[in-house]
């Protein structure tokens, strides 16, 4: 199985003919087809296949109990109408890298494994990285069982319907104890590599990020008969705040997005009584992020006061910065630069990953493959096949460097 043929097998699974995007949600038939594909890849290579207590799939080359394993992999599920590369590129590249090592005849001192973490995107149950969170002990069985999809189906019921036992889910310290290093290859979700002209990069950190809810409360009234000067229109303060968010983010070199909004009463001929907007903001470091959000809050408060609007800001979620293991990161840079003398770019990212979840428990690192447009979570997501192959070879070099005798 070459990279090309593995890729071709996965391409049709869970693809919407209407949008061209992927709808591979956790525990749905499309996800189960991807899982069947993974199992087949493991078995056709004679790798030891297992599913852990949280439904993550593993394919082992060598004895899992030997310890200090070098593990690679990613995820196969998708966001709604996601691209083909986010997740699958890492899994396909992992199998291809294993094939490359076997072809090289590398004498391995450590066991290697490929993993497919379940429900990374959280598209169905609203929480990202469920498989790795459970394994790392960041999500309890009770919390997982309470997760519910848009149709009212619980995660537990969905796992059961897919033939998995939801009562086994929970922390898996024994499994983590077997792993010496985890390296996740992923399509880049930005244009940093395109701008530097490199095919492959190494991750430095995942930016701290959070979500804040802004409630602007004014006074509902008739859109035709209420004089402009008599209005308490929260939409105006909201609109000014969106512009302020853009300004603050630009000043700090951060990102800030109002991408979701709810309006009451939501009538075309009514001045709103409430505009609720959700801010997503991310920055390279905590200080910068705090400054951006404080700046946006301050501006929102001033605009609200000017229009007679009551403002409430609530932080709904927050994830601190994830610094990948420095020693492992430096080791990757050394391995990849060894023969070429080329310095591989090291870059931060604003997107979350299973590697970020696991980094609190085991040494983790990430490789990024160039994405010429930077578009991700969209059918337009793309990586050239040459770059994908360069990613496979880089991953093979890394696995070889970390696991060879
Ligand atoms: Zn991903």
TrEMBL record:
One Pfam family assigned to this protein is Peptidase_M20
Annotated GO MF terms: hydrolase activity, acting on carbon-nitrogen (but not peptide) bonds, in linear amidines; metal ion binding
Binding of Zn(2+) 2 occurs at 86, 121, 377
Q: Hydrolase: is it a keyword of this entry?
A: yes
Q: Keyword Zinc-finger on this protein?
A: no
Q: Which InterPro entries match?
A: Amidase_Cbmase (IPR010158), Bact_exopeptidase_dim_dom (IPR036264), Peptidase_M20 (IPR002933)
Q: Which keywords does UniProt give here?
A: Hydrolase, Metal-binding, Zinc
Instruction: Note the PANTHER family from the entry.
Output: ALLANTOATE AMIDOHYDROLASE, ALLANTOATE DEIMINASE-RELATED
Query: Under which name does UniProt file this protein?
Result: Allantoate amidohydrolase
């Amino acid at each position: 199985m070459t990279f090309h043929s593995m890729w071709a097998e996965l391409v049709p699974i869970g693809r919407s003919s209407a949008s061209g995007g992927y709808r591979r949600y956790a525990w749905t038939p499309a996800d189960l087809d991807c899982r069947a594909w993974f199992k087949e890849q493991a078995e056709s290579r004679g790798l030891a296949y297992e599913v852990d207590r949280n439904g993550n799939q593993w394919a082992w080359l060598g004895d899992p109990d030997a310890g200090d394993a070098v593990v690679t992999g990613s995820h196969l599920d998708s966001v709604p109408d996601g691209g083909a590369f986010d997740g699958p590129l890492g899994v396909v590249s992992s199998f291809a890298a294993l094939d490359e090592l076997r072809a090289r005849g590398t004498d391995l001192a450590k066991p290697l494994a490929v993993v497919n973490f379940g429900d990374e995107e959280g598209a169905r149950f609203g929480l990202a990285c469920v498989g790795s969170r459970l394994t790392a002990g960041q999500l309890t069985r009770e919390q997982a069982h309470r997760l519910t999809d848009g149709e009212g189906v619980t995660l537990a019921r969905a796992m059961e319907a897919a033939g998995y036992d939801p009562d086994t889910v929970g922390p898996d310290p024994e499994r983590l104890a077997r792993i010496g290093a985890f390296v996740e290859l992923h399509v880049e979700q930005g244009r940093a590599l395109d701008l530097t002209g490199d095919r492959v990069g190494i991750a430095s950190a995942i930016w701290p990020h959070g979500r804040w809810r802004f409630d602007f409360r004014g006074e509902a009234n008739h859109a035709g008969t209420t004089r402009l000067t008599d209005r308490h229109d929260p939409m105006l303060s909201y609109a000014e705040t969106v512009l302020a968010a853009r300004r603050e983010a630009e000043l700090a070199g951060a990102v800030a997005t109002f991408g979701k909004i709810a309006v009451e009463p939501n009538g075309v001929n009514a001045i709103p009584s409430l505009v609720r907007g959700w801010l997503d903001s991310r920055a390279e470091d905590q200080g910068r992020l705090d400054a951006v959000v404080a700046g946006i809050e301050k501006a929102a408060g001033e605009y609200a006061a000017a229009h007679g609007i009551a403002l409430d800001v609530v932080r709904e979620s927050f994830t601190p910065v994830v610094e990948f293991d420095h020693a492992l990161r430096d080791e990757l840079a050394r391995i990849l630069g060894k023969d070429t003398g080329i310095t591989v770019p090291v870059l931060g990212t604003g997107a979350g990953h299973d590697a970020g979840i696991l980094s609190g428990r085991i040494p983790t690192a990430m490789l990024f493959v160039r994405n010429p447009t930077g578009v991700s979570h969209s059918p337009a997501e793309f990586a050239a096949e040459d770059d994908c192959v360069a990613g496979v070879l880089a991953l093979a070099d890394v696995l070889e460097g970390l696991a060879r005798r």
